[in-house]
Each structure stands twice: as C-alpha cells, then as structure tokens.
Amino acid sequence: MDKEISSHDLEIVEEIVQLNNLSISSKELLRKGMIEALNGHVIQLNLTGLKISHLPDSIGLFSELKYLFLSNNNLSFLPDSIGLLSKLKVLFLLNNNLTELPESFENLKFLRELDLMANKFRNFPKSICSLNSLEILNLDNNIIQRIPECIGDLIHLKQIDFFDNKINYLPNSIGKLEELTGLNLAYNFLSDIPETVEKLSKLKTLYLNNNQIQKLPEELGNLENLENIYLNNNSLTSLSINNWKLISKTTNISIDNNNWNSRKFLMVLSALENNNSTNFPETAQISANPLSENVFVSKLDEDGANLLFSSILGGNGVDRGQGIKVDGNNNTYVIGETLSTEGYNNN
Predict the structure, then answer these.
(1) How much is the average pLDDT of 295-310?
(2) In a shared domain, residues 271 and 193
C-alpha cells in the first residue's frame, strides 16, 4: 500500500502501520512527531523537497527501510543513527549542503546506489569505501580534489560519476574496479590517467572531456569493450597508434578542441589504414589548431616505422585543418574535400 500524507491528513496515522511506501509532502509532519509515530514496516521513505535542515535521530527506527529519498533539502549533516538502516539499498541525497558523512555510514553494507550529487564535499568521504555492495556512485557537482586509494575496495561498482569536481589525481587502485561499465570524470583537473585503466575490461563509456590531459596511457588501447569515449577539450597533442586502434572500434568519439600536432595526427591516421584497421567510427571530428604550416598525409610500412609515401595536403597559411571526418567507406574528408584512402600506394 502506497500513500502520500499531507499536513491535513494526521487523522490517518493509525493506518500507517500498513504502509510499505511513504511519501511525506510537508515538513510540518516532522515537527509533529510523524516519524516517531511510524513503526518498522516502512520499506520506502520519500522526504524529497521538504527543505528540511536536519534529519531526526529517530530515522534510525526504520529498521526495514530499503529506499530513502532525501534530495532537494537543506541538510548539512546526517545523524549517526543513519547507520542503523542496515537494510538500506538506495539512498538519494542530491542537492543538499553536505560536507561529510558520519562514521556510522560505513554500516550500510547492503547499499547499492548512492547519489550525493550537488553537495559541498571537499574530500571524498572515506566511509563510502566500506560500502562493499555499492554498484552506483554519484558525486557529480562537488568540489572534491582527490580520490583515495580505498576506492579500489568497491569492487562491485558498475557506474561512477565524478563530473564537475576539482579532481587532479586518480589512484592506481581504480584498476581494481573490474565490473565498471561507466566512468565519468569530465570537467575536472586531471593531467594524466593511470596505466591501470587497462584492467577495466568491462568499461563501455568513458568521459574524460574538459580536463588538462596531455597524454593518454598506451594501456588505454587494451579496453576492448569500450564503445563511447569523450576526450574533447583537453591538451592532447597526439595519440599513439595503440590508442587509435581502440578509438577505431568505438561507436561514439569526441576529440575536438585539443592541441593536436596535425602532422602527427594525419600520419597516425594513415598508419591505421596500413594496419588494416578498417572499422573506423562513422564520424571522428576534430577541431585542431589551424594548419598554418605544410601538412602531409603519409603512409607507413606494416610496422609503422618507415615512411613509404607522403603527399602534401596544404599549409602555408591555408587553414585546412579545422575538421577531419572518416566515413564508413574509409574516405577521409578535410573541409569537405575527399581524400580517398584507396588512392594511396607505395609509388
């Protein structure tokens, strides 16, 4: 039985003992002791948008609670009694004023989904590292700078969202999260990515856009299941052939607004063609720096070590490098002009 209780419905308190899902629409009920009047049968409790500034200690009385929604309030702390909700599976706390979590939080051993988006965390709450059942973690829109090594203890994580923080360091232990399918690190201050990312064998979507990354690890090319990768708005100058092999298998790729060395970029593109990597993404747009110098499309040998063929593409003030697109037929387009890859040979 589901029921939403307003401040005009206090006379039905006696019915509450039959409720499984309870949504409270007025914080007046909290002042009048509604929570204290409830017994332990409630499985889902929704206190979203009440603008409450504190949660009463009596929240710990909900011994059967599995789903708790506390988003869009003014909470700046949680009571220690939150740790008594030992059966809790889902906890939404997005859009509050939280800066830390109580130590008792580590007792939520069955928690699977935790949403702490849009709070005021400066440090990653280490009590989270004890949540061994956690599968989804959202800390978007906070001001966290570093992710601790203990995140590697959350081996059941499938989705991590750290969008729009101040993160400048990612620990090697990130490689222990072998169940991870989605990782969002966009809009941070990362300058490099640990080599251990190669162990994220199930990763399908990776957001690294809007950071300060200058170079990607070779090991990134070993992520065979990666389908979507976003690298735009970084400081990349080139990509290794191994990285390009990875990118050639992805469905969606964004690499615009970097500091591409256009000559190196085009040689790597040609090397891919030499290595029979024909499964190019349908579109691979880049917005590189205008090519104000001579630029060549080059063909390498099978080992990618020796130059076999080179042809001038443009330069000397002719800005022809604003975009590159590769279609499904392996045709390369530069500002709408077709450069057929079939036209390149060893002559």
Answers:
(1) 44
(2) no
Task: Supply the range of the domain harboring residue 342.
Answer: 264-347
Q: Where are the alpha helices (DSSP H) in 3-150?
A: 28-31, 34-37
Question: How many other β-carbons are positioned within 10 Å of the β-carbon of residue 231?
Answer: 25
Instruction: Answer yes or no: pTM beyond 0.85.
Output: no
Helices and strands, counts by H and E, the chain:
4, 17
Domain count for the chain: 2
pLDDT, residue 281, reads 37
The DSSP secondary-structure symbol of 303 reads: T
Mean pLDDT for 108-123 is 98
* Domain C-terminal end among 245, 263, 281: 263
Per the CB < 8 A criterion, the answer to whether 190 and 208 are in contact is yes
pLDDT at 6 over 90: no
Q: Structure tokens of 239?
A: 């990509």
**Is the distance from CB of 209 to CB of 185 less than 8 angstroms?**
no
69 and 177 both lie in a single domain: yes
Place of tokens 């690890």: 217
Residues 74 and 22 in one domain: yes
Last residue of a domain, one of 263, 288, 309: 263
